[in-house]
Amino acid sequence: MGPTTPDNSSEIREHTAAPASACLAAVAGMAAAWVAAGSTGLLGHSLRHSLTWLLLGVALVVEWPGLRNAPARALAVLAAAAAAVVMTASHLPAVNVMAVVPALAVLALSSKGAGRSILLLASMAVAGLGVYVQARTSIPLVWLAADRLSGLFRNSRLWVGASFAGVDFLVAMAVLYTGWLLSSAPPRRGRAFYGALAILLGHVVYLAALAYAPQLLPAPESADAEAGGRWAGVVRTLIPWNLPILACAIHAAIAAAIFRWSQWPAAAVEGSAEDAARRRTVMLIAAAALAALLPVVTMLSTAKPGLDGRKIVLYEKGYLNWLKPEHDEYGRLSIGMYGMLPTYIESLGGHCVKSPELSDDDLKDADLLILLYPNDPWADGQLARIWNFVSSGGSLLVMGEHTIRESDGGSRFNDVLGATAMQVRFDSATFEVGGWLESYEKISHPATAGIPDDRNQFGAVIGASVRIRWPVRPLLVGRWGWADPGDEGSGPAMMGNHRYDAGEKLGDLVLAAEQPFGKGRIIAFGDTSTMTNGINTGAHVFTSRLLAYLADGSGSPQATWRQFVGLLLALAIVVLLVWQPALSRIAAVSLAMAASCAICTSVTCKAHPIYPDGRQKTPNNLAYIDTSHLHAFSGESWRDDGTMGLSLTLMRNGYLVLNMPEFTPERLERAGLLVSIAPSRELSGPELQAVRDFVSKGGILICTVGYDDRGPSRELLSTFGFYVGSGPSGGEDEPPEPLPLGHFKSPYLDAGSYMTYVRFHAAWPIGCTDPKARSIAYGAGDVPVIMQRDVGKGKVVVIGDTCFA
To answer: Please, which residues have CB within 8 angstroms of residue 708's CB and are 6 or more apart in sequence?
Structure first.
């Protein structure tokens, strides 16, 4: 006997077993979705995308034989695969997950009977996972709920966030389980019990492995570890960071068993003949509309905040200094801590006040108060003034640090946060990959929208984690790291043992959070690094938006009412996915949500461009180092191939130095200096025009590029008459390859009592077609290696050495 049809009519359907190829394709699709969501552990974004494509390729290959005689369907499958590749290229996790759905849906449309049924269920499970990922990353209430659910697994050996707890796997399997029970043949009671038991026991096995596997490996410095050789070292790097792959394998095996060993309707399960076309159409339109509306409610922000005329108060006291790079001071310590912050705020249009006591006069008419690691006991009335300032409509930014416990056992920044539902923990939020590279989870917010995390654009290093509860909203989360508890006996820093031990919080550490407070708002960080002189050069896109958001007081998509409306929308979408599932409806949900998510992110980004402006100073003091064309230097500035030395030199000469992640006229027209270091990607036509305008109006362009790296810079150099080598390129006869000048030093300035030299790493001769161009430094044989030319009101300087900077 088969089940009744989805509309509860009395028609009986024939049931059959599913073909193995369809089972493999469905399981590969679900695994692709888990990989795309980042559920399988610590993977670089490029590797994660590639594995997603590989798994989708497996699904395509196993189902391809059935498409050979159906060219229209084969074309549709290839189009869906191409769309999946485009969607997985997005940095939005929900879009990455939804990329899998069209591919599975088209494969299902190309299948028949039981094969179509299981591919439909797999696409439904993936769509449900996509809705959950969208909700978790845009609705703080959902993130908090997932974190609390993960806390149910906590014991003396295991404390995990949602990523390591495997909530993503449980969500997808719950949707699959529900659809399986509704669409497969009766009797269902026994299968309902054993199916749920298999899912739960499988997950318990994974959690047990996660709890005990790290302790089964010998310590890195032990004799057993040395005896294990290279493979033991490889395994140690994967545990626990890639152990979620075990959960993926377990749940994929359970899904395969469900698909293969169940009886499925021999005909399509999208609805019976009695289903009214109007009802199906209404459900399709409703599902797509709700899917498109969810990102609008939870992500979209069209406010245009700014710092123009805003008063920003910096508390002068704390464990800090207000130094900035000065001449005759060199090395790491010469960079100072926050000396460039007032200059930076002023470049954004704000009015900066350093307050020694946080007096009523200093806080009067202020829009934002910033506390950077306060460590002195609060004077009478100071905390009350701070809380009154915020509750009356001001904003407060509190930046704490790791393992801070003052002599009285407390911490001054937690004193300030005592009136809130967040506290900075006595621990170190420690990353597995330095700088949290590709390890952040951003909760949708006007300050974070559209910002990638491949170069630590948020600036967090090792700070402390932040303990939060409702109504606090997480802002930045460190997904692949752990909370290393502090140790008061370990020295002045009171840090722990710098390795993950059983029972320490693993994954999903809150690095920054926000709470409404009266008419104002408070944002707390567990780290001060983001605002420091050296790190803000790369984090300025985030910090400029963050400061503008706080000072302006504009609305946020994280408003409580929007969270609850978003939660209702997400639940309604899931119901429409599961109730009488239809491939057209599932595909429409995925495409509508992905498109809306991308559009809302783009609109929010464009509504929040906060550009530093050096034109307020004479001369223009804003210097950009171009990082948007795959340049030949390390993003880790203090490495030998980094550019921190160049940045410090420019700061010593009065410049505000920032990296330039997007090459736009809006940024260039506000700057005074642009440095280009051997790009690997050519500038486009509009970008070249922007550089011409920049220089002609008074900007200074410095290009450092050797002969072997000259290709992508050739058009830029020739625009201003420069070339690297024996002569200008072009035409039929290329000039001969020049002799390299190698590593040397050249006299630069005769100061009378001493001679100044400029040093080159691997120099090449350069030239200029303008006879008025001036040579600044020479190599052997008086060959120019640095030249300058005046162009309009500006200057162009070319240095024939890629590594000069």
So the answer is: 764, 802
The DSSP call for residue 180 is H
Q: What single letter denotes the amino acid at residue 382? A: Q
Measured distance CA(247)–CA(167) in Å, rounded: 10
DSSP 76-133: HHHHHHHHHHHHHTSS-HHHHHHTHHHHHHHHHHTS-HHHHHHHHHHHHHHHHHHHHH
Annotate 457-479 with b (16+ C-beta within 10 A) or e (fewer). bbbbbbbbbbbbeebbbbbbbbb
For 777, the 3-state DSSP assignment is strand
CA distances from 679 to 190, 401, 709, 737, 763 (A): 64, 37, 8, 20, 17
**∠ Cα 110 111 115 (to 5°):** 150
Query: Residue ranges of the alpha helices (H) in 239-312?
Result: 244-260, 277-298
Q: Indicate the pairing of strand 505-506 with strand 509-517.
A: unpaired
Could you report the per-residue pLDDT of 251-310, keeping only the tens digit for each?
999 999 999 888 777 655 444 445 567 888 899 999 999 999 999 999 999 988 999 999
- In the chain, % of residues over pLDDT 90: 74
- pTM, whole model, 2 decimals? 0.93
Provide the token pair at 774. Answer: 């001036």
**Per-residue model confidence as pLDDT tens digits over 32-61:** 999 999 999 999 999 999 999 999 999 998
- CA dist 522 to 422, 465, 473, 575, Å? 10, 16, 10, 36
How far from chain centre, in Å, is Cα 322? 30
Query: What letter would DSSP give residue 373?
Result: S
179 CB-contact burial (10 Å; exposed 0-12 / middle 13-18 / buried 19+): buried
Which of 172, 156, 246, 149 shows the shortest CA–CA distance to 203?
246
Q: What are the start-end ranges of the H helices in 608-713?
A: 644-652, 665-668, 685-696
Q: Which long-range contacts (CB under 8 A, 24 or more apart) does 340-346 make?
A: 340/533, 340/536, 340/651, 340/656, 341/314, 341/531, 341/533, 341/536, 342/314, 343/621, 343/656, 344/536, 344/540, 344/543, 344/612, 344/656, 345/307, 345/312, 345/547, 346/616
Query: What sections of 152-188 are H helices per DSSP?
Result: 162-165, 167-183
- Please state, in angstroms and rounded to a whole number, the distance separating the CA atoms of residues 272 and 335: 72
**Are 432 and 480 within 8 A, CB to CB?**
yes
For residue 645, what are the contacts with CB-CB under 8 A and spacing of at least 6?
805
Taking only the tens place, the pLDDT of each residue in 671-714 is: 999 999 999 999 999 999 999 999 999 999 999 999 999 999 99
